[in-house]
Amino acid sequence: MFSGMLYIFLPLIIGYFIQVKKPVVLDFINTQTSRLVLVILSLMGLSLAGLDNLSENLNQILIYTAVFFVSISTCNLLVLPLIDKLAPTNTQQDHRTIPLTTMMMESVKLIFAVAGGLVIGLFSGIDLSWVDQASEVILLLLLFLIGIQLRNSGMTLRQILLNKKGIAIASIILLTSLPGGLIAALILDIPYNQGLAMASGFGWYSLAGILIGDSLGPVFGGAAFLNELLRELVALSLIPIIIRRYPCTAIGYAGATAMDFTLPIIQNSGGIRCVPIAIVSGFILSLLVPFLMLFFLSL
Fold this sequence. Notes:
Structural class: mainly alpha
Radius of gyration: 19 Å
Oligomer: single chain
Strand content: under 5%
Shape: globular
Distance between the termini: 7 Å
Order of helices and strands: HHHHHHHHHHHHHH
Helix content: over 70%
């Protein structure tokens, strides 16, 4: 069990110890990481095409997605408002135009990657026996690059430890998401460790879908991808509406994306005071995703 987990962890750990000082190198790594995500999501689509009873499996993916999304989101939103009540955060409304269309298109591009792989697999008639092995190799490379990104994200340990509210939000998301995953596992009658792994994505849809799919197959991988993607799309719509009254709730529900994808909308809607909280919370959750997910999958 632990040898398999170490095999997956190793490239992530090695990458985390690599410090990159040249911005051009970091830009190159970021670009290649984005490209590898698209490639591996396309391979996920190919894997779906190779399934028997595809229509039945797609229906199962949608059911898993709905159950996990409702269960985890409900647990998150029941507790997050307590932080706003106990430790209110001042916000500033900037009234700037938020490029929601541009943000949505980034998510749509990832959906097209999966759909494109599915269509090619269904209609090209190519041999798909190589897909699983190729996905594993690309996954290891992707984890290595993600490790480098996390190491060079600009967050120091001192900055993280000093922002207690960011730590509190990340802790609440962790402590409420895992019970949500267990509840979903009970409803769907699947092993508890799979429910915990599915609950450990925290909005990082690309990595969640890849890791889950590599371990549990394309049905679970597709459900993990859609579950976290749906979380992000809801967060994009929810943040401008609730952040003035419930800033910690808005930041927390964004999950791991609070440090990158949803950060502009958090800043524009809630003001600059929300930014350090969002970055710390998002960074901690991003760091936890691969470790928790791989740990639960190895049980």
